[in-house]
Design a protein that fits this description.
With 242 residues, this protein is α+β, with helices and mostly antiparallel strands. Helices cover 48% and strands 17% of the residues. The protein has 7 helices and 6 strands, in the order βααββαβαββααα. β5 and β6 form a beta hairpin.
């Protein structure tokens, strides 16, 4: 069985320098810029796994998965097929969570250190992976989002990797929050415009004012058990088709 332990909160002092004189702060700043240039949560997570490998010392593969209580796990971003196999199918087949994930509901970081022998008997060893560092990105009562990096050697992820990983995941989490809010605002504006168009169509067709048209739209939505946005789109699409 692999050794499992929860890593306590780390002091981020005495951060390392990267080869070639590039300071960690500069590397994280460059990564943050790329993360904040993304336009959807999915593209943010794809960028995160791509950036994690060169940024976290020892990392060779990376993936992001979402665990929902009682609903299994979805792998949503990965660097390669090795990660998809290690974390479960990427198409939402409800694969069970990695055993060490339970710790991440309560702690931000978990190490998985495989045995030193090639026949350690773990699923990671069977894939040629010997170490994993799992870092929590988001957590609420029902959903856990985790970035995990992997290496082919045991004991790769030390305190330095953990510190860098926690700093990096803080940037990823901020970028995810930002892009999620932007996406929600964009959708809200689209919905408002769509409902406005549908209201205008009803005003013209039924010779009623804006308030009456909106009330009619709401009543139809409730009667047909259809979201207001979807009903508005149906009215707009039908009007454009005529």
């Amino acid at each position: 069985m692999p050794k499992r332990f929860v890593v306590p909160a780390s002091d981020f002092s005495e951060l390392p320098r990267f080869p070639g004189g590039l300071e960690l702060a500069e590397a994280l700043t460059a990564a943050a810029r790329q993360l904040h240039d993304t336009v959807t949560p999915h593209s943010t997570m794809r960028a995160a796994v791509r950036l994690a490998v060169p940024l976290l010392p020892g990392a060779e593969h990376a993936g992001i998965s979402v665990l929902e209580r009682g609903s299994g796990r979805r792998t949503v971003a990965w660097t390669d097929e090795v990660v998809r196999t290690a974390e479960g199918s990427g198409d939402g087949d409800g694969g069970g969570p990695a055993p060490y994930w339970d710790h991440l509901w309560h702690a931000p970081v978990v190490h998985l250190a495989d045995s030193e022998t090639e026949d350690g008997g773990t699923s990671l060893a069977g894939l040629g992976l010997r170490s994993a560092l799992a870092l929590r990105l988001r957590a609420d009562k029902r959903r856990l989002t985790v970035l995990t990096v992997y290496a082919r050697k045991p004991g790769v992820f030390d305190d330095v990797a953990t510190r860098v990983g926690r700093l990096f995941t803080a940037h990823v989490s901020l970028a995810l929050d930002s892009v999620t809010v932007r996406e929600q605002l964009t959708e809200a504006m689209r919905t408002r415009d769509l409902i406005g168009q549908a209201t205008g169509i009803l005003m013209e067709r039924l010779n009623i004012d804006a308030a009456e048209a909106f009330d009619s739209l709401v009543r139809a939505s409730q009667r047909e058990n259809v979201k207001l946005r979807d009903l508005a789109r149906r009215i707009v699409d039908a009007n454009n088709a005529t």
